[in-house]
Specification:
Elements: E1 6-8, E2 14-17, E3 40-45, E4 58-63, E5 74-76, E6 95-97, E7 116-124, E8 129-138, E9 145-149, E10 153-160, E11 163-167, E12 170-174, E13 178-182, E14 188-192, E15 196-204, E16 227-230, E17 238-249, E18 252-260, E19 265-270, E20 275-278, E21 299-304, E22 311-318, E23 321-323, E24 340-347, E25 362-365, H1 375-383, E26 389-391, E27 396-402, E28 407-408, H2 410-415, H3 440-446, H4 453-458
Parallel strand pairs: 9-17
Antiparallel strand pairs: 1-16, 2-19, 3-4, 4-19, 5-18, 6-25, 7-8, 7-28, 8-15, 10-13, 10-15, 11-12, 11-14, 13-20, 16-20, 17-18, 21-22, 22-27, 23-26, 24-25, 24-27
Bound molecules: 2-(3,6-dihydroxyphenyl)acetic acid and fe (ii) ion (FE2).
2-(3,6-dihydroxyphenyl)acetic acid (OMD) binds at residues 295, 332, 335, 341, 352, 365, 371, 399.
């Protein structure tokens, strides 16, 4: 497979022509009476026409046939993709899933779209405000089939198996430890190379942005130059039996036939594009003195709500880094949160739970549901010598954190059969260590190296 080329930057005004058709982008205007190469001009709007400039998103696509030339859509059955948040009773428990099962190709061929399973979500695609979390488990490429989501944006996190994503804007290869974002309305098709699994964060009514950096300054976290955007690529491909276009619209799938590939865009320009990002490029910032920084310090992308500082969803990672905090319980703290936390694991393990939370599985700690390190992690890290050490080496856990109170679907609760009924047991061995006769000097006698200089100065 030839190396793919990409443009670089986040949300730039890009332009790209398939090298087979130089000059395909009209010069100086978007709608010439006749476009170069006799292409059709088509605008894809990702924001209201009237959005302020800073939030205005659109691209112009120059294509062989406009998207409108398709037969009527009809409803398509899908058993496990849903936006019905009332399928099962609410459950405030800590939930954890074993790795989601990938179907065996010999038993059933499943492609990316049919392999989408909704785990949880909230809100309403019609009201343009909400979130859905899906896992995809598939084994077959989409052949003469493409998909677009009318409801929102997909942030795709491959966990097992690379995916080859053909989009209207060009092609991307996305491997585990990379992510891609396919925004609302963009046609794409996914090729796979074996048993394939990953996670999808869908947001309705907002696009992902880089978080503001505040006092961090002008650089750091996910740097804009590390985002990769495909270059224009077209196929002039007619399919006798019909090419199937699938749209997710108001939570349901619809399919329509047309006689040609939708990947017929010869040139495009604009700031509304798909993109990918390698999580290895994340410039990690964290505590260099004491205490545990909140995980928002690891935010890669955020989909903002209209409330200042409150996200519809944040995509947060727990990357390999140094742990050096002095006189600190270094792993995540025990907490209760006014946000929902869905976690997944791409590879390795997660520091707050060495066992039980496995790559390809997940967990959901709902709004105000208490959670934190398991008993093992607490005991170990309360006694550990606090030398500088690598944390999370060779691992990558992530969190979809949302201000929405999410409902779990029937698939998530029952059908997937991966819910770990014993999850709560990981906290059962937690014992009281309360000592009413405790004094600072008894603490000092027990403490490992890396004591608190301020406490020492106080004594
Ligand atoms: O619950 C979790 O494991 C995620 C998490 C990590 C952390 O370092 C601090 C808070 C938090 O919710
Ligand atoms: Fe948490």
């Amino acid at each position: 497979m030839a190396e793919l080329k990409y443009l670089t930057g986040f949300g730039n005004e890009f332009s790209s022509e398939d090298p087979r058709c130089p000059g395909a982008l009209p010069e100086g205007q978007n709608n010439p009476q006749v476009c170069p190469y006799n292409l059709y001009a088509e605008q894809l709007s990702g924001s209201a026409f009237t959005c302020p400039r800073s939030a205005n998103k659109r691209s112009w696509l120059y294509r062989i046939i406009p998207s409108v030339r398709h037969k009527p859509f009809t409803v398509m059955h899908h058993g496990s993709l849903t936006d019905n948040w009332n399928e099962v009773e609410p459950d405030p428990n800590q939930l954890r899933w074993l790795p989601f099962t990938i179907p065996k190709v010999a038993e059933k061929k499943v492609d990316f779209v049919m392999g989408l399973n909704t785990v949880c979500g909230a809100g309403d695609s019609r009201a343009r405000n909400g979130i859905a979390i899906h896992v995809y488990t598939c084994n077959t490429s989409m052949i003469d089939r493409s998909f677009y989501n009318s409801d929102g944006d997909f942030l795709i996190v491959p966990q097992q198996g690379k995916i080859f994503v053909t989009t209207e804007f060009g092609k991307m290869i996305v491997e585990p430890n990379e992510i891609c974002v396919i925004q609302q309305g963009m046609h794409f098709s996914v090729e796979v190379f074996g048993e394939t699994r990953g996670y999808v964060l869908e947001v309705y009514g907002a696009h992902f942005e880089l978080p503001d950096l505040g006092p961090i300054g002008a650089n750091g976290l996910a740097n804009p130059r590390d985002f990769l955007v495909p270059v224009a690529w077209y196929e002039d491909y007619t399919v006798a039996g019909g090419y199937t276009i699938i749209s997710k619209y108001q939570g349901k799938l619809f399919s329509a036939l047309q006689d040609h590939s939708p990947f017929n865009v010869v040139a495009w320009h604009g700031n509304y594009t798909p993109y990918k990002y390698n999580l290895e490029n994340f410039m990690v910032i964290n505590c260099v003195a004491f205490d545990h920084a909140d995980p928002s310090i690891f935010t890669v992308l955020t989909a903002k709500s209209v409330r200042p500082g409150v996200a519809i969803a944040d995509f947060v990672i727990f990357p390999p880094r140094w742990g050096i905090a002095d006189h600190t319980f270094r792993p995540p703290y025990y907490h209760r949160n006014c946000m929902s936390e869905f976690m997944g694991l791409i590879k390795g393990h997660y520091e707050a739970k060495e066992g039980g939370f496995l790559p390809g599985g997940g967990s959901l700690h709902s709004i105000m549901t208490p959670h934190g390190p398991d008993a093992d992690c607490f005991e170990k890290n309360s006694k550990a010598a606090l030398k500088p050490e690598r944390v999370a080496e060779g691992t990558m856990a992530f969190m979809f954190e949302s201000s929405f109170s999410m409902a779990v679907t029937r698939w998530g609760m029952d059908t997937c059969r991966r819910l770990d009924k014993d999850y709560y047991r990981c906290w059962e061995p937690l014992r009281s260590h309360f000592d009413p006769h405790w004094t600072p000097s008894s603490q000092k006698a027990k403490a490992g190296p890396g004591g608190c200089p301020r406490a020492a100065a106080r004594e």
